[in-house]
DNA sequence: CGCGTACGATACGAGACAGTCTCGTATCGA
DNA sequence: TCGATACGAGACTGTCTCGTATCGTACGCG
């Protein structure tokens, strides 16, 4: 027969607790005991749903990934700023420390990190790659720039600072400043910006 | 009396083993047993020299940090490429995975990460800041660029790729390409055909 | 030579953790 | 109402780790 159905609320609580603790302490320091305690459930309840700690973490990350903040139209400059703003906003939520946690996992738990890269990071990168390619085709970005170089330039700076200085050390204007710096370049004889 | 002196060779072996394992597995997964085994010493020999695992790791990192690859003269472009080349070279040695390991430590072990940032990263950044400031003063870099933004732009891109793709996924020409892209900027060299 | 210390080996205590299991209770569907 | 299942609580096993302690031995210095 059917019996008592599983509590969807417990599912949510477990996933939330898992992500929160991940961001606070990292994979190796999160215990199933701690997850259960924060979620307000018994350990057995977790193991009834996921076979192992690894499986729980992977699934939790996959579930709570925000959908693309998508399809801003307008000048490429504004689109890029919007994307970086989105990243900054996410970093300031509880899940903010998840990225450095996964960077650490590239060392301590490569399969987990690879899963994160392939499932979470890569789709977003692909979207951005598409965006940059389009901008190049429309003459909004300089020809001859490697698409991946451009993306790394734009993302790397923000992420580097976020990871090492923390979200609170990055002010709201940072994304715009970085995008403008990347577009205009650091050299003195800057190319004519559109309109000038 | 003097007695038997401590073996300096053991010191080296322990520090080397510590750094190697750190880069391979991360702080939390390195056990004193493993360090002792790889160094070919007994655990007691380690504890005779360092009071704890934390102390060992901190000291090991401090000891084996390469001196600045210093004072390249010439155009700022070449100096920057040289610096990024140096970073890439270090990343390909055994200590290469130490950086992502420390990024992970910002989550799982903040004091350790902060020590790394302050003692290892910050001096190098200060050196680079000085370099950039000079270049701006000499008109080699555009005025009005925030110095830290410029540094993050240059370093972030390389580190981002190194961390997530691994040192082997970055080819030798990457530093030069990134520096050139950052200097020249991503914007087109002629005004875009707006509205197209 | 021989004293004093470092050394390797190994045992040990304390505690954390993953994962399993059992118990009695709560809650659904039929 | 009743059967079936989920649930919280917690005991339990086996493993791992840090850090300490205790051996007998190796080795340098006076």
What distinguishing features does this structure have?
homodimer, 196 residues, mainly alpha, elongated, disordered C terminus, DNA-binding
How are the secondary structure elements laid out?
Two copies of one chain form a homodimer.
Chain A lengths: L7 H18 L6 H8 L3 H7 L3 H11 L12 H16 L6 H11 L1 H28 L9 H19 L8 H11 L12
The structure holds a DNA duplex (30 and 30 nucleotides).
What does this structure look like?
Two copies of one chain form a homodimer. Chain A has 196 residues and is an all-alpha fold. The first copy, chain A, is 66% helix and 0% strand. Chain A has helices at 8-25, 32-39, 43-49, 53-63, 76-91, 98-108, 110-137, 147-165, 174-184. In chain A, α1 (8-25) packs across α2 (32-39) and α1 packs across α6 (98-108). Residues 190-196 of chain A have low confidence and may be disordered. Chain A binds a DNA duplex (30 and 30 nucleotides) through residues 1-7, 10, 31-33, 40-45, 47-48, 51-53.
In short:
2 copies of one chain form a homodimer. In chain A, 66% of the residues lie in helices and 0% in strands.
């Amino acid at each position: 027969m059917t019996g008592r159905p599983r509590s969807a609320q417990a599912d949510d609580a477990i996933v939330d607790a898992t992500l929160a603790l991940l961001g606070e302490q990292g994979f190796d320091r999160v215990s199933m005991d701690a997850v259960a305690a924060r979620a307000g459930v018994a350990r057995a309840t977790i193991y009834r749903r996921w076979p192992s700690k690894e499986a729980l973490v992977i699934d939790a990350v996959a579930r709570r990934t925000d959908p693309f903040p998508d399809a801003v139209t307008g000048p490429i400059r504004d689109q890029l700023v919007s994307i970086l703003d989105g990243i900054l906003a996410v970093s300031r939520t509880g899940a903010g420390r998840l990225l450095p946690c996964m960077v650490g996992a590239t060392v301590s738990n490569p399969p987990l990190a690879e899963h994160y890269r392939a499932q979470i990071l890569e789709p977003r990168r692909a979207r951005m790659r598409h965006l940059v390619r389009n901008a190049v085709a429309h003459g909004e970005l300089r020809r001859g720039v490697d698409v991946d170089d451009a993306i790394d330039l734009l993302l790397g700076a923000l992420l580097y600072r976020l990871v090492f200085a923390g979200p609170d050390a990055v002010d709201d204007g940072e994304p715009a400043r970085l995008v403008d710096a990347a577009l205009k370049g650091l050299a003195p004889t800057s190319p004519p910006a559109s309109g000038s």
